[in-house]
Amino acid sequence: MQSGKLRHRITLERASESKDEWGGITKTWTEFGKRWSRAVPLSGKESFSEAHEIATIDLRVELRHDSLTETITAKDRVVWDGNTYDIETPIDVSGLGKEIHLMCVKSDG
Predict the structure, then answer these.
(1) CB-based contacts of 34, cutoff 8 Å, min separation 6
(2) What pLDDT was estimated at residue 44?
(3) Domains and CATH numbers, the chain
(4) Is 107 exposed, middle or buried (0-12, 13-18, 19+ CB in 10 A)?
(5) Do 34 and 9 touch, CB atoms closer than 8 A?
(6) What is the pLDDT of residue 54?
(7) What is the pTM of this model?
(8) Confidence (pLDDT) at 21
(9) Contact at 8 Å (CB) between 39 and 59?
């Protein structure tokens, strides 16, 4: 991956859950890293199929593989350009641990 293509700064967030004073569950999102990336808005017509679920992908985020990016899961999310995106799946593109693509959908909240 050419470094010149990594011109978008993204924030990675991870959820944690805790019980509130009434015993309900509260989800809190916490930043766990920032990375330079290539953020590619998609047409909304590109679909990704995993175990028969179809998700319309809104954004593909391309990152270099490192010790932080290898911990990214579909439970995390990306904040970029004032918008929040849920990660549908992280993909090790080459299978060699060099480049990761995050397939994301715009979050409802």
Answers:
(1) 9, 10, 11, 12
(2) 55
(3) 3-106 (2.40.10.270)
(4) middle
(5) yes
(6) 58
(7) 0.81
(8) 84
(9) yes
Longest dimension (CA), the chain: 51
CA–CA dist 11, 102 (Å, integer): 13
Residues lower than pLDDT 70 in the chain: 1-3, 44-55, 109
Matching residue, tokens 């017509």: 45
H helix or E strand, kind and range, residue 29: strand 25-41
Q: How many whole angstroms separate alpha carbon 99 and alpha carbon 1?
A: 7
Q: What pLDDT shows up at residue 2?
A: 62
Residue type, 65: H
Query: What does the block give as tokens for 109?
Result: 């909240």
Which residue's structure tokens are 């090790």? Answer: 92
